[in-house]
Amino acid sequence: MSAGFNQLEESPEEEEEHNTSITDKKQGRSCFGCFCDMRRAVIILSALGILGAIVSVVINYFLLFEPARDEVLDNDSDTKQQLDDLFAISMVLAGLSVVGFSLSIIGGVKFNQVLVIVNTIYMPIGFAVNQVFSFSAASDIEGFDYGFSSMIGPLIGIVMAVFVHVSFVKEIRDGIMSEKNYEREKQSCCCV
Predict the structure, then answer these.
(1) Among 42, 33, 50, 44, which Cα is nearest to 191's?
(2) Which residues contact 87 (CB under 8 A, 6 or more apart)?
(3) Which H/E stretch holds residue 77?
(4) Quick one: CA dihedral 79, 81, 85, 88, positive or negative?
């Protein structure tokens, strides 16, 4: 009876081979099921976030603030001051976004979850603050056109970025994603 039991038992070499093949398989998620690993997704979306913050300042200035300023009469200095204040706030928020996304890039490159968490917390807060000021300005300043349709694109981007950041941090905490096992987790739809 013991001979039959020993035949079912794996030898140490077979057991090691079996465990290696299990751990050699990718364990982490892929960004939206097929694109890339979460580390690359954090780095790519953060780079796009930096670009988006810079572009939004330019677009807001030329398409929102300047046209609204042009419609304001020269003697309405209060409204012009409100527009200037709103533009200053949008510049500060964009600058903070650049800093936050830069921290996420560094955190992604160095597998540092704290740096990624900082931006994960900032993104929805910065988005909410920006929306509050923009909607407030739209109701207070004549000629300043900002509606719900203006927030849909940024909202989708923030939700996607937060999801990716949280997934990356979870993979680091679960031991799935680290410098040691990144070769196993590496995935890309276009550049690996």
Answers:
(1) 44
(2) 60, 61, 65
(3) helix 77-110
(4) positive
User: What is the DSSP code string of 142-184?
Assistant: TT----THHHHHHHHHHHHHHHHHHHHHHHHHTTSSSTTTHHH
d(CA 155, CA 63): 20
* In-domain check, residue 131: yes
Half-sphere exposure of 161 (CA within 13 A, CB side): 31
Under the banding of pLDDT at 50, 70 and 90, the label for residue 7 is very low
Residues 58-72: tens digit of each pLDDT: 887 777 667 666 666
Residue 145 — left, alpha, or beta (φ > 0 → left; ψ -120 to 50 → alpha)? beta
Residues 68-87 pLDDT 10s: 666 665 666 777 777 777 78
Domain that holds residue 102: 53-178
Tell me how long the chain is. 192
Structure tokens at 172: 């680091």
Number of domains in the chain: 1
Residue 118 amino acid letter: V
The tens digit of pLDDT for each residue in 88-138 reads 888 898 999 999 999 999 999 999 999 999 999 999 998 898 888 777 766
As given in the structure block, the two tokens for residue 154 are 């940024």
**Tokens read off for 53:** 């913050």
Q: Does the residue 33 lie in any domain?
A: no
